[in-house]
């Protein structure tokens, strides 16, 4: 009985290396055959394929670039949201009631001075700006907009409402 048993093969480093070398050779052979098949295609077809590969690569690069741009803008968007909520808190706690005709601008400096906005929420120290607020009777709620001007970013409309 013992003679009929198979010997357990040892898993050695040499066998692992040989296995990876064989796999690598198969991969290289596959791509060589793929290249040979591609080169047998008509020239127009190869040209169209090249163009499509470039188009796909450009789309991929644009997607990556837009994602990094979104991350860049996220800090400024967060700051605008912080300024909006700080402005609303400032108006409500001081019982100021700006109307649609008399909108109130509250600077970032004032919000920081009165403790409604914290310095650590402003990642870009070059930023200046304000929250613009009024009470809309039709909506029965406050309307708050934030405008910031930083070294690398400015809210659209900042210069229109700047004091």
Going across the biggest sheet, name each strand in turn. 1-2-3
Per DSSP E runs of 2 or more residues, the count of β-strands stands at 3
By DSSP (H or I, 4+ residues per run), the number of helices equals 4
Helix content: 40-55%
Radius of gyration: 32 Å
Distance between the termini: 98 Å
Main sheet summary: 3 strands, antiparallel
Which overall shape is indicated by the principal axes computed on the Cα atoms? elongated
Mean pLDDT: 86
Q: Any low-confidence stretches, pLDDT <50, length ≥5?
A: none
Comma- or semicolon-separated keywords:
163 residues; 13% strand
In short:
The chain contains 4 helices and 3 strands, in the order ααβαββα. The chain is elongated, with a radius of gyration of 32 Å.
Q: What report would you give on this structure?
A:
The longest helix has 51 residues, at 43-93. By secondary structure, this protein is α+β, with helices and mostly antiparallel strands. It has a domain at 67-161. It is elongated and about 80 Å long. Helix content is 54%, strand content 13%.
Fold topology:
Blueprint: H1 13-39, H2 43-93, E1 104-107, H3 108-113, E2 128-136, E3 141-149, H4 158-161
Antiparallel strand pairs: 1-2, 2-3
């Amino acid at each position: 009985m013992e003679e009929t048993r198979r010997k357990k093969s040892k898993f050695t480093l040499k066998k692992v290396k040989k296995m990876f070398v064989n796999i690598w050779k198969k991969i290289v052979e596959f791509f060589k055959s793929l290249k040979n098949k591609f080169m047998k295609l008509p020239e127009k077809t190869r040209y169209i394929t090249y163009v499509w590969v470039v188009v796909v690569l450009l789309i991929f690069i644009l997607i990556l670039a837009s994602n990094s741009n979104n991350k860049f803008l996220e800090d400024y968007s967060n700051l605008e949201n912080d300024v909006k909520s700080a402005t609303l808190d400032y108006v409500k706690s001081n019982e100021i009631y700006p109307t649609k005709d008399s909108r109130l601008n509250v600077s970032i400096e004032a919000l920081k001075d009165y403790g409604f906005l914290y310095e650590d929420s402003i990642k870009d120290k070059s930023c200046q700006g304000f929250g613009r607020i009024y009470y809309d009777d039709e909506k029965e709620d406050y309307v708050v907009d934030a405008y910031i001007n930083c070294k690398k970013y400015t809210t659209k409309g900042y210069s229109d409402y700047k004091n």
